[in-house]
Fold this protein.
Amino acid sequence: MLRKTFFLFIGLIWLSGTGAVLDPLAQETSTPTPPPPPIGLTLTSSPTSNPPSNGDGNKKPTKTPTPRPSGYLPPKPTGTPTITPTSTETPTPTPTLPPTLIRLVVFMDDNRNGAFDTGEGIDGLLGMARWGDWLTYGTTENGVLFLTIPSNIPAGAQIAVETPYLHWSTQVKAPEQSGTAEAVLRLELPEFPVFLP
């Protein structure tokens, strides 16, 4: 009996070396299956595949791939974006007409030649123009004053031009659009007697 027990014990040891131990208490266990991946994730390889063996019967551990969301695209390399020039149209400028003017000239004819020469203009003299209810004014600079005529005054209308401090006035015709009418006041040097009586 002892002999039978001994052989039985040796047989069990031999079987345990091959991994085929017959244990009456051992229960059949199934290989656990991993839980399904979350919705929207797909696995790139099956985690239940048998890992490779290293030749001595022991199995090597393998890395489990990281699950990626479905539709995952790797990021594109960043580089300098290509700029495509776009043509922009240059807006056509709206032509603006020069204003319609009255040019008032006031000068002292020092050399008595009847012409407005350099240095003869009178500065700071008030000049004005009027037509109906319209009135404009300004002061001369180097003997010249430009007065702007509004567009509602028709061409050919008689416009009064005045220098109130000198009690002088004249009439000029309103010019065509963008034209200039001129009013000239020539002042002469007074003549003094050579000898006082």
User: Anything to note?
Assistant: Residues 100-188 form a domain with the Immunoglobulin-like fold (CATH 2.60.40.10).
